[in-house]
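Progress note, sequence design subtask.
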């Protein structure tokens, strides 16, 4: 038992090294970043790097854009995936299992394969240089999340559906008033994963956004880089640490639901 704990602690410390280096760099003067030998503790701690990093580029605007896009993306993914998963888990229809297999097959389709046709569709709709291509796809569900929620919904006794039908409930009432309240762990898992997908997405904003005022954080952080060798690494590390705050907060506050949901959806169904 102790050996497993020691191995976990060693692994955790190794994984914390990049984060510690980011924190150290964010508090240094830019000329001190590449000093040899490496100094983990800055000679002079510069807390002003953080407010200066925020004003060096329109960081707060990028932050607002990412929060807006990610919030709507999570809402859309949770609602659409749970609704489709409910249909696969509870409703009876001819060919339902075949459709579910086809849905799972899409997991093996690389996103690069559909990149060009999806881009052409968005261009035809006039959605380029807007947040729609970053949000609307999440409102059509995701195959992995539908599979995960279906597995969880199938663990909920069907007797609850029968009792609700006797009281005059519709299928949507069963979904909204019974299934969703009992599925908080699985829904939290979907929300966390989809938030990370949207928050860390670099490729989609790079392809669909052109206006500087619409950029999200992953793309905005690249503005700290300079092709002329004058990159402000201390500002970049400070901005990156600020970018990590929402994912870390969400994970720590939803950790209990996340772990419970991952266990239940992985072992049952």
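Output:
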């Amino acid at each position: 038992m102790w050996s497993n704990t020691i191995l976990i602690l060693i692994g955790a410390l190794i994984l914390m090294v990049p984060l510690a280096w980011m924190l150290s760099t964010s508090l240094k003067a830019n000329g001190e970043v590449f000093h040899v030998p490496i100094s983990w503790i800055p000679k002079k701690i510069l807390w002003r790097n953080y407010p200066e990093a925020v004003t060096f580029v329109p960081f707060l605007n990028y932050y607002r854009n990412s929060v807006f896009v990610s919030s709507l993306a999570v809402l859309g993914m949770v609602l659409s995936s749970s609704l489709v998963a409910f249909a696969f888990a509870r409703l009876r229809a001819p060919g339902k299992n075949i459709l579910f297999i086809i849905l799972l097959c899409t997991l093996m389709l690389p996103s690069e394969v559909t990149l060009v046709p999806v881009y052409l569709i968005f261009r035809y709709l006039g959605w380029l240089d807007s947040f729609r291509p970053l949000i609307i796809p999440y409102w059509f569900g995701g195959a992995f999340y539908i599979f995960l929620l279906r597995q969880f919904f199938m663990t909920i006794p069907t007797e609850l559906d029968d009792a609700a039908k006797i009281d005059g409930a519709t299928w949507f009432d069963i979904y909204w008033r019974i299934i969703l309240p009992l599925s908080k762990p699985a829904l939290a898992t979907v929300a966390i994963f989809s938030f990370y997908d949207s928050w860390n997405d670099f490729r989609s904003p790079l392809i669909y956004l052109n206006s500087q005022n619409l950029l999200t954080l992953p793309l905005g952080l690249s503005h700290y880089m300079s092709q002329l060798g004058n990159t402000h690494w201390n500002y970049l590390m400070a901005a990156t640490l600020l970018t990590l705050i929402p994912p870390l907060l969400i994970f720590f506050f939803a950790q209990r639901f996340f772990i419970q949901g991952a266990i239940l959806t992985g072992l049952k169904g």
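The chain is about 70% helix and 0% strand. Work on this subtask will continue into the next period as scheduled.
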